[in-house]
Design goal:
The chain is mainly alpha-helical. It is built from 7 helices and 2 strands; from the N terminus they run H-H-H-E-E-H-H-H-H. A hairpin with a 5-residue loop joins strand 1 and strand 2. The longest helix is centred in the C-terminal third of the chain and has 17 residues. The radius of gyration is 20 Å and the shape is elongated. The model has no long low-confidence stretch (mean pLDDT about 80).
Length: about 170
Amino acid sequence: MLRVSTKGEYGVRIMVDLARHYGGRPRSLTDISQAETLPLAYLEQLVKLLRDADPPLVSSTRGAHGGYRLSRDPNEISMGEIVRVLEGPISPMICATEGEMSQVCGFMDSCKTKYLWARVRDAVAQTLDSITLAELVAQTTEPTGQAGQFIALTDIHVGIGANMASPHELLTAE
């Protein structure tokens, strides 16, 4: 299973908060922490990564009315750029790492599955690179008072064998 760490999750949430307030006054980490219910001390570490990225994803302003804001328009920042700054290269397996591999698998030459992992890497990278921060903000804006729901973008089938019921059969069973 591919997982994004809390560093990636919280960092994306910081960026979404900043995108929601794009064009307004700088956002303090205290405001972001309270709005997103995230630990303030951790946010300080994450904005440093976002600020030190090349090119920077956020800029900071000191002073009483200071805080953080996006360094570019949310339409110009891809989710892939954000996730790579926070998590590093997309890498479902060591044999399928973006860019230069820091580790080399001993089975690289005879591996029967490296094609699979390269396809997974490319699919994840393409998805992240094709979604902008602005698009994510537009898709995640929910009406006030409504709980978020899981959204399946495709038909998901999980099963152990051929005798498993389909999702449709499970929903229509008496």
